[in-house]
Specification:
Elements: H1 2-9, E1 33-41, E2 45-53, E3 57-62, E4 65-70, E5 75-80, H2 89-99, E6 107-116, E7 125-136, E8 139-149, E9 158-165, H3 169-182, E10 184-185
Antiparallel strand pairs: 1-2, 2-10, 3-4, 4-5, 5-9, 6-7, 7-8, 8-9
Length: about 190
């Protein structure tokens, strides 16, 4: 139970009424944030944007999907706005949990459903967030995957995942919160 509350508390204000704060972000681990663009093509421009760490390197992964990676520390955020199917946010999170079955060292920290405000007139946002850890070689990785329904819709229109070292979970929670609140997609 302590692990559940600490993991969800690391997601910041999006998880309300949970006790047990994660450790403070270590000195020198702060980031500058700014508007970043993804899903860009030369003819039509960029189809998505969010407030993300300015220093993280962008890699396009295909239609509607991009990843921003910290080149100095193993952590990242991936945004997918072109989901193959559009289940409800809660169903998408449960499906993700089922798909993780058999992952080495998997520990589900928690699953939380709720709402958030959008800073980009996309809200209210319906969200479902799955938090878990797993083993990658000798390291334990901390991951939070969030499914987002825009304008109060329960249908998952976007998936945002942050991942990295367990000790970076507070910072990753901040990255996830800023990205969620500011996520905007071209009409």
């Amino acid at each position: 139970m302590k692990r559940l509350m600490a993991g969800l508390a690391a997601l910041g204000t999006t998880v309300v009424a949970l006790a047990g704060a994660a450790p403070a972000v270590a000195a020198g681990n702060s980031l500058a944030f700014g508007s970043r663009y993804f899903d860009c093509d030369p003819e039509y421009g960029c189809h998505g944007s969010a407030v993300l760490p300015k220093s993280w390197k962008y890699t396009g992964l295909g239609n509607g999907e991009g990843r921003f990676t910290d080149t100095s520390v193993p952590r990242m955020i991936r945004i997918d706005t072109d989901l193959d199917s559009h289940p409800g946010t809660a169903t998408a999170a449960l499906n993700k949990q089922k798909a993780l079955k058999g992952t080495p060292g998997l520990k589900i920290i928690g699953l939380q459903n709720g709402t958030m405000k959008s800073t980009m007139q996309q809200g209210p946002l319906r969200i479902s967030t799955l938090v878990y850890t797993y083993r990658s070689g000798s390291q334990t990785r901390w991951v939070a995957t969030r499914y987002i329904g825009f304008h109060g819709d329960k249908t998952a229109s976007a998936e945002v995942t942050v991942g990295g070292r367990v000790q970076d979970r507070t910072l990753l929670g901040t990255v996830l919160t800023k990205a969620t609140e500011s996520l905007a997609m071209a009409g």
